[in-house]
Design a protein that fits this description.
There is one protein chain. The chain has 204 residues and is mainly α. It has one domain. Helix 1 packs antiparallel against helix 4 and helix 8 runs antiparallel to helix 9. It is globular and about 50 Å long. The chain starts with 6 loop residues before the first helix and ends in a 7-residue tail after the last helix.
Length: 204
């Protein structure tokens, strides 16, 4: 158990545990009295919070969706900034970033189920790769405005960010970004299947 006294391990554990906090589930249950794990896509992310709460309270749905998006992004950012303040090396920071995303997608509080990871992923990548993340957000915004399908917009933005990282920072080790991308695509497999079948619904 000596590894628990290692500061790197402490930040890794914190990243996973904080990343796993299901803000969407908590907000929807507390303020709207609904369980997003039992409705819609059964995801704990902002899109499903918006979709499920909208059925009973459209005005509240927008607020809770926005709050979920913000909190899911901030939870990864918070641990990263703490690690930076503690003087952790870049390798540790990348470990924290990846584990925050893993925590959200495979939450220890939800029997290792969780959300799709887009907000948390974009949050940590905004800290680590701000220019690339800005590219991803712009692509996401354009796709969301034109197609209005959350999964396509999100995944296109992620791909744009990954590709941009090879151009803007060709010298860096891209493995952490690739790992995060793979996790996000893995969590979107049901959406990808629905897209192929033409069953994926737009968010209106």
């Amino acid at each position: 158990m000596d590894f628990l006294f290692n500061i790197n391990a402490q930040f890794y554990i914190a990243a996973y545990l904080v990343g796993g906090i299901p803000f969407g589930l908590l907000l929807a249950r507390f303020f709207a009295g609904v369980n997003v794990k039992e409705s819609g896509s059964k995801s704990i992310g902002a899109t499903n919070v918006l979709r499920v709460v909208k059925e009973s309270n459209p005005a509240l749905a927008k607020k809770l969706g926005a709050a979920t998006l913000l909190l899911d992004a901030l939870k990864g950012i918070a641990v990263l900034l703490a690690a930076m303040f503690a003087g952790m090396p870049e390798s540790t920071l990348w470990g924290v970033a990846v584990l925050a995303v893993i925590g959200h997608c495979f939450s220890p509080y939800l029997w290792f189920e969780g959300g799709k990871g887009i907000a948390t992923g974009m949050g940590v990548l905004m800290v680590m790769l701000p220019l690339e993340t800005l590219v991803g957000i712009v692509v996401w915004a354009v796709m969301a405005k034109t197609l209005k399908i959350s999964s396509i917009s999100s995944l296109t933005g992620v791909i744009a960010l990954l590709v941009a990282s090879f151009f803007i920072h060709p010298e860096m080790a891209h493995a952490p970004v690739v790992i995060i991308t793979i996790i996000l695509f893995y969590k979107h497999i049901p959406n990808i299947v629905r897209l192929v079948k033409g069953e994926e619904k737009a968010v209106v």
